[in-house]
């Protein structure tokens, strides 16, 4: 392959690349649910910049190209809400999403003292659901958004991540 993928904290300079990657990655979700007005496809650059300033955002790079990203913010109760785990379509199915998920869990546990992790995905997003279950997440609720979409919320305790990562 020549180059290896590195994971690091995102910077303000990554904002446009992350937003473009997000737009590309969420096309398949929009198609799956028949809804191209989903927030990841309509998020403005200023909103993403605010997330970079206020939360924890990691990127995976292949050379200078951002090929994956994930975000998290820890609330006052110590729950890290993980959001927008995206991997470039050509890089999918090679373990990068799992590496990024492990990395964001470690980062928010060390930096913010997260006690638990929570994330969500659509009920038809089987690949996402498999990935999250493989990393120790269990479904805790399902919320019907409309006739096409139900959001499945999955969670796990922070201590569980150490065991899963070492397994």
Short description:
The chain has 167 residues and is α+β, with helices and mostly antiparallel strands. Helices cover 40% and strands 32% of the residues. The chain has helices spanning 15-25, 27-33, 39-42, 45-54, 96-112, 126-134, 158-166; strands at 5-9, 56-62, 65-74, 79-87, 116-122, 138-144, 150-157.
What does this structure look like?
It is a single chain. The protein is of the alpha+beta class. The protein has one domain: 3-Layer(aba) Sandwich (Aminopeptidase), CATH 3.40.630. Helix content is 40%, strand content 32%. It contains seven helices and seven strands, in the order βααααβββαβαββα. It has a seven-stranded mixed sheet with strand order 1-2-3-4-5-7-6, with helices on both faces. 26% of the residues are buried. The C terminus is likely disordered.
Radius of gyration: 15 Å
Q: In DSSP terms, counting alpha (H) and pi (I) runs of 4 or more, how many helices?
A: 7
Element pattern in H and E: EHHHHEEEHEHEEH
What share of residues are in beta strands?
25-35%
Main attributes?
alpha+beta; Aminopeptidase; 167 residues; 7-stranded mixed sheet
Secondary-structure map:
Layout: E1 5-9, H1 15-25, H2 27-33, H3 39-42, H4 45-54, E2 56-62, E3 65-74, E4 79-87, H5 96-112, E5 116-122, H6 126-134, E6 138-144, E7 150-157, H7 158-166
Parallel strand pairs: 4-5
Antiparallel strand pairs: 1-2, 2-3, 3-4, 5-7, 6-7
